[in-house]
Amino acid sequence: MIDTIATVERNLEPAKGYRLLTLNFNEEFQILPGQFAMLRAHNGYEPLLRRALAVYKQDSPGQLSFLYQVLGRGTEMLSLLGSGAKVDALLPLGNHWPVEECPRAIVVAGGVGSASVLMLCEQLKRLRVDTQIFFGAANERSALGCGIADFLALDLPLSTTTDDGSFGEHGLVTSPLERHLDEDTRTAVVYTCGPWAMMKRVAEISRLREVKCFASLEAPMGCGFGVCVGCVVAVNTDEPSGYGSYKRVCTDGSVFPADLIRWEVAAMSH
Amino acid sequence: MHDPRLAIEIAGIRFNNPVLGASGTFGYGLDMAELIDLNRLGGFCTKGLSARPLAGNPPARIVETHGGMLNAIGLQNIGARAFVEEKLPLLRQYDTRIIANVFGYSDDDYIEAIEILNDGADIAAYELNISCPNVKEGGIVIGNSAAAAARLTEKARRAAARPLIVKLSPNVTDISELARAIRDAGADALSLINTVVGMSIDVNTRKPRLNYGTGGLSGPAIRPIAVRMVYEVARVVSLPVIGIGGIASAMDALEFIIAGATAVQIGTANYYDPRVTMKVIDGLSEYCEHHQVDSIFSLVSSLRKE
Fold first, then answer.
1. Pick from A88, A222, A266: which is nearest to B69 by CB?
2. Residues forming a β-bridge with A247
3. A228–B273: do the CB atoms touch at under 8 Å?
4. CA atoms within 13 A on the CB side of B4
5. Among B62, B65, B75, B210, which would you mutate to test the A interface (most chain A Cβ atoms within 10 Å of its Cβ)?
6. Is 70 exceeded by the pLDDT of residue B24?
7. Of A48, A53, B235, B285, which residue is 20 to 30 A from A94 by alpha carbon distance?
8. For the segment B240-299, what is each residue's pLDDT rounded down to a tens digit?
9. What count of other Cβ atoms lies within 10 Å of the Cβ of residue A187?
10. A104-218+254-260 — its CATH code?
């Protein structure tokens, strides 16, 4: 983990409301799939806190890209940065997707949750793991914004859904996932990142079929490196005092085994 | 490596400089070791430690506001015993002052935590947290009443094997009155301010943004309130005062020192600028150089009236 100042290479808008920010660093990194960075405009005053963004792509040892949706003050500030602008960056943060002992992988991405799994898909492909991707988005524009072109370019089995049917299958991404797991009962590991309600459903679908599932969670973060204890998620604990009921998304995660999470206690609002 | 002009003393404890990490923003110190050189730091206050581990509040625990943030963490911590046994041995390698922040739901809880911490070597002082707004018992309930605060201070002073700093809440009518009562009860120093109670509402759901309802406001937004309160307290109480509230630069720290603080604690800024403590130490040295100050101590309570 280092605290450094990066320079914006480019800040593209693949679709309205979505951004692909590419940063150049003086340092070289080895980013593991699923890790994230805390970013903020250098010397900015508002908003105060850095924003947690998953590393979407590692273009080279010193160049990283971040895919994000413009949702609030922090991401709006980042969306305004042009080439050459300076960014305060703390990285790499968090654990990573566990791919050891994965005979067959099923990746379920919902919305901009795709940002956390592109590197995972690349890794699975490199490791020659049999991989099926399910990619869900609200509509065609959102699918473009969430990087559908990059996922198609992977040339892995991919099934797309949109809520309004404007691109791919009409409906939720959990429908083709359920069909797939019922048809192909070989041992598999499910990896998911997306809206809370979607991950909750993916976890349930996996649990009912006794399929191992990992989810990468999101929560508003104060620091990103464990000291504020603000980004917690409720987990199952057998400690009678209740101690250990909450884990930090930033340092204990962001990737958790899905059966550890108490999905009825939402850690994020979308 | 230490600038001798920045050395200070509080309750007989020598600090290499007046810059401390604030409780709740610095973990147990070790969490910061990858980002800053702890040996350069004056000291730090641990996350609030209770006699037994605490789970804390359900999420959402934080929300950003303009110029600050609200938190309602609820004092999630590993407990005093685990701190003594697991963290202290690892902290021993660093040349910095460790202040154990102590919390309880009742007077007896506080005393029990202090007695556990008395077993730990290398703790420089205790900071009594009687001002946390995010738990229903203890904390702020005690900190809101001069009589209750004095009673606990007296008991804690008797139990504590080390100097006792009492951390004051700004959520009171008259902070000077509270400071006097705590001084009379035997405190060795005062730290202020803790967070300011606040609230933020999501107008779409019409629910509070924090699960707890209210939270503690911190960050640059509260700094002028904190400077004013340090000034008021330092004027009426001769005890050393440690200033806290929205410090993010050496100039911010100097405001507190001139207002009457012997040292400062940096809190929320650690989140968005993890190396801020180092920058503030460097900035204080530059100020001393520029203004020909031989000892930072000469600036304490040096406010000019005209």
1. A222
2. A233
3. no
4. 1
5. B62
6. yes
7. A48
8. 999 999 999 999 999 999 999 999 999 999 999 999 999 999 999 999 999 999 999 999
9. 11
10. 3.40.50.80
Look up the ipTM and state it.
0.94
Interface of A with B (CB under 8 A): 1, 3, 40, 45-50, 73-74, 88, 90, 219-223, 225-234, 241-246, 265-267, 269
Cβ distance B271 to A231 less than 8 Å, yes or no, reads no
Q: If you average pLDDT over every residue of chain A, what do you get?
A: 95
Kindly report the nearest CA distance between residue A89 and chain B, in angstroms: 10
Look at residue A181 and tell me whether its pLDDT is greater than 80: yes
Give the domains, in start order, of chain B with CATH numbers: 4-299 (3.20.20.70)
Going from N- to C-terminal start, the domains of chain A cover 2-93, 104-218+254-260
Task: Say whether B73 and A230 touch across the interface (CB within 8 A).
Answer: yes
Domain A2-93 has CATH 2.40.30.10: yes
In DSSP terms, A54 is beta-bridged to A36
B38 vs B18: CA distance, rounded Å: 14
Distance CA B118, CA B141 (A): 25
The answer, yes or no, to whether the previous bond of B60 is cis (omega within 30 of 0) is yes
Q: Which residues of A touch B70 (CB under 8 A)?
A: none
> What is the pLDDT at residue A270?
46
Q: Is residue A226 within 8 Å of A263, Cβ to Cβ?
A: no
| Residue range A138-159: mean pLDDT, rounded | 98
Please judge whether B61 and A47 are an interchain contact, meaning their C-beta atoms are less than 8 angstroms apart.
Answer: no
* CB-based contact B64 A229, cutoff 8 Å: no
Catalytic residues of B, by residue number, are: 132
Chain B closest CA to A231's CA: distance in Å? 7
DSSP string covering A245-262: -EEETTTT-SEEEGGGB-
- DSSP alpha helices (H): ranges in chain A? 73-79, 118-126, 140-145, 148-153, 174-183, 196-208
Average pLDDT over residues B114-137: 87
- For the segment B37-64, what is each residue's pLDDT rounded down to a tens digit? 999 999 999 999 999 999 999 999 999 9
Q: What is the pLDDT of residue A267?
A: 64
Query: Measured between alpha carbons, how far is residue B251 from residues A150, B246, B258, B280, B285 in Å?
Result: 48, 12, 10, 8, 11
